[in-house]
Design a protein that fits this description.
Largest sheet: none
Number of helices: 8
Helix content: over 70%
Number of strands: 0
Length: 207
């Protein structure tokens, strides 16, 4: 399942790249939403984690357990993926495309110009997309939209000269991988909670 999701994400990105291959020059695209600073700021791992966490807190006031579960999984996935991504960036030390000087790879580095691999933005959006269940028609469409969003963010990061294509692909795979792991870990926890509920219910009946 994880492999197929990653392949779909790659296909979506390549399709978008082809469609926009003959677009206007980068100088003319700076005002576009895809390359805007607003989109860049809103899709950093901390921003996405905050958005999903706030949505989860609001959802607790509603009677929508499925939505609550998705938002909780998304928040956890983005948080974990963001931390892993930040650590990898500093360990790998790859130079960003927009950096003017220095070696291609520096190794462990804290300077932003050597924090290219992997892409944190692609990682965060992929973590959310990977948390969407794919069990029915509407959810399949939502999942496809999530994959498309990951592709758009990937294009945004490469168009802004913040990342190489490989940075985006590795970041996306990391996000999808963490979402998949969180989803797998959630199942035994849910089963245990359900067992405890049933056990409590039976105990209360016989009191």
């Amino acid at each position: 399942m994880l492999a197929s999701t990653g392949i779909k994400g790659l296909f979506a990105y390549r399709a978008l790249r082809k469609m926009n291959g003959h677009s206007a020059k980068p100088t003319q695209n700076k005002g576009n939403l895809v390359t805007s600073s607003a989109l860049s700021n809103a899709t950093t791992p901390p921003s996405v984690a905050t958005i999903m966490g706030s949505a989860y807190a609001i959802s607790k006031m509603t009677d929508s357990p499925k939505i609550q579960r998705f938002l909780l999984k998304s928040t956890l996935s983005v948080s974990v993926a963001g931390l892993l991504n930040a650590g990898l960036k500093r360990l790998i030390g790859r130079k960003r495309p927009r950096a003017e000087s220095g070696p291609e790879f520096k190794g462990p580095a804290l300077k932003d110009k050597f924090n290219s691999m992997p892409s944190g933005h692609a990682c965060a959006v992929a973590a959310v997309a990977g948390s969407i269940p794919r069990t029915s028609g509407p959810l399949l469409l939502a999942s496809a939209a999530g994959l498309a969003a990951t592709a758009v963010i990937g294009r945004s990061r490469t168009k802004r000269d913040a990342h190489h294509l490989s940075d985006v692909l590795v970041g996306s795979c990391l996000g999808f991988g963490v979402a998949y792991a969180v989803s797998k870990l959630e199942k035994p926890v849910e089963a245990k909670v359900e067992d405890q509920k049933q056990s409590t219910s039976l105990t209360n009946r016989f009191k």
